[in-house]
Amino acid sequence: MWWAQRRLRYNIGLVVAGLLAFAAYVAVVDRGISKGTMPGAEITLFTTAFQGFGYLLMMAIANLCYNLGPWSESIIRPTDIETYRRVAYWLGFWFSVLLPFAIPALVAWSYIIHRGTTPMPEP
């Protein structure tokens, strides 16, 4: 019951993180396009819908992983169950919320690394 009561908060965190990570991704890609280091990149309705669908799939997987909390609790059987639950929940929550930012961070890193290269000529 403890874990079930916190699932909504967990999912709200995932939705907010997904929206913010997508905004960061758009900003990084837009910057790369404007600087000419990402000439093949584009953000269209199709790519946005595709990424949105992919993120919904990842949210479903994250919710499956959420079950690791109660499962690990039943395996480990901690003596201080309240502390264990709080620590396990917050570790899982922050890992899940920060993970979507890996994509814009990797794209930004790629943009920074390849910033000095000559852009591809236009056909």
Give the topology.
Layout: H1 2-35, H2 45-66, H3 68-76, H4 81-98, H5 102-113
Helix pairs in contact: 1-2, 1-4, 1-5
Description of the structure:
The protein contains five helices and no strands. The chain has 123 residues and is mainly α. It has one domain (2-35, 43-113). The N and C termini lie far apart (60 Å).
Give average pLDDT, whole number. 88
Radius of gyration (CA) equals 19 Å
Helix share, percent: over 70%
Low-confidence stretches: none
Number of helices: 5
Distance separating the two termini:
60 Å
- SSE pattern, N- to C-terminal: HHHHH
Strand content: under 5%
Which class best fits the helix and strand makeup?
mainly alpha
Shape: elongated
* β-strand number: 0
In this structure, how is the largest beta sheet organized? none
How many structural domains?
1
Short account of what is shown:
The chain is mostly helical. It is built from five helices and no strands. It has one domain.
Please supply descriptive tags for the structure shown above:
elongated, mainly alpha, 0% strand, 123 residues, 5 helices
